[in-house]
């Protein structure tokens, strides 16, 4: 294996969608859950890399993307950008589900129609991130390494703090975040918000 961490490049975009889908079921392959392979990446991956490529990084194996960390320096600003330039088109493509639809597919379509939001307890942590590595890249220090790359880069933009949210069923990721120095900001019914001060 020849792993390398480098800044996001536009040619990585389809790999971002793919990696997002292959890790979207509490860190495992979610392909069977979604009718359209682009759906989950349209919400959780692509907009970050498109609108803030300067804070996005990928892991490659012999040149092939096999993991990423993507995020935003300023969640409120990204929310506005996506309301204007991202979600309107996707809302035409993915129909709003009926309230009684509870499938994972319906849940992401619902999120696309709701748009991003920033919970009040997270406003002091303006940056946020998503990290996903394919199994081939997991468990060998690359998650910590790409997280450090992301954090060191955010500090250059003078960002005060960052947050992330993880589903409670993703116990591996929860242990990883706790182990590398994130603290719990708040526990919700199905997820946990973690935070880190950057200065
Ligand atoms: C979660 C994830 C990012 C972690 O990355 P990783 O490369 O596997 O983790 P690393 O090998 O860099 O581990 C870093 C440290 O965390 C520790 N760690 C990682 N997973 C752990 C676990 N499940 N339990 C306890 N410690 C853990 C490691 O032992 C290591 O400790 P050390 O640096 O002190 O030796 C990665 O496994 C992944 O992408 N999983 C699938 C997608 C996913 O769940 N993403 C998160 C969505 S919220």
The low-confidence runs, each spanning 5 or more residues with pLDDT under 50, are: none
What percentage of the residues does DSSP assign to strands (E)? 15-25%
Structural class: alpha+beta
What hetero molecules are in the model?
coenzyme A
The CATH superfamily name is Gcn5-related N-acetyltransferase (GNAT)
Envelope shape: globular
The major beta sheet can be summarized as: 7 strands, mixed
Per CATH, which architecture?
3-Layer(aba) Sandwich
CATH topology: Aminopeptidase
The DSSP helix count reads 8
Sequence-ordered SSE layout with sheet pairings:
Blueprint: E1 3-7, H1 13-22, H2 39-44, H3 46-51, E2 57-61, E3 64-72, H4 75-85, H5 87-93, H6 104-114, E4 127-133, H7 142-156, E5 161-167, H8 171-179, E6 183-187, E7 191-197
Parallel strand pairs: 4-5
Antiparallel strand pairs: 1-2, 2-3, 3-4, 5-7, 6-7
Bound molecules: coenzyme A.
The site of coenzyme A has 20 residues, from strand 4, helix 7 and helix 8.
Question: Any overview of this molecule?
Answer:
With 199 residues, the chain is of the alpha+beta class. 38% of the residues lie in helices and 23% in strands. It contains 8 helices and 7 strands. The protein has a 7-stranded mixed beta sheet, sandwiched between helices. A hairpin with a 3-residue loop joins strand 6 (183-187) and strand 7. The relative contact order is 0.15.
């Amino acid at each position: 294996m020849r792993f390398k961490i480098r800044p996001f490049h536009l040619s990585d975009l389809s790999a971002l969608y793919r990696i997002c889908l292959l890790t979207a079921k509490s860190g495992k392959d979610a392909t069977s859950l979604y009718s359209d392979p682009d759906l989950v990446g349209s919400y959780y991956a692509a907009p970050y890399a498109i609108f803030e490529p300067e804070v996005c990084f990928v892991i490659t194996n012999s040149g092939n993307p096999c993991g990423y960390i993507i995020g935003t320096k300023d969640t409120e600003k990204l929310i506005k950008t996506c309301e204007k330039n991202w979600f309107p088109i996707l809302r035409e493509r993915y129909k709003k589900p009926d309230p009684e639809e509870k499938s994972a597919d319906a849940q992401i379509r619902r999120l696309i129609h709701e748009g991003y939001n920033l919970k009040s307890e997270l406003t002091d942590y303006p940056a946020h991130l998503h990290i996903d590595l394919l199994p081939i890249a997991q468990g060998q220090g690359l998650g910590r390494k790409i997280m450090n790359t992301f954090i060191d880069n955010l500090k250059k933009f003078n960002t005060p703090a960052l947050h992330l949210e993880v589903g409670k069923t993703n116990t591996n990721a929860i242990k990883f975040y706790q182990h590398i120095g994130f603290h719990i900001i708040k526990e919700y019914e199905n997820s946990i918000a973690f935070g880190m001060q950057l200065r």
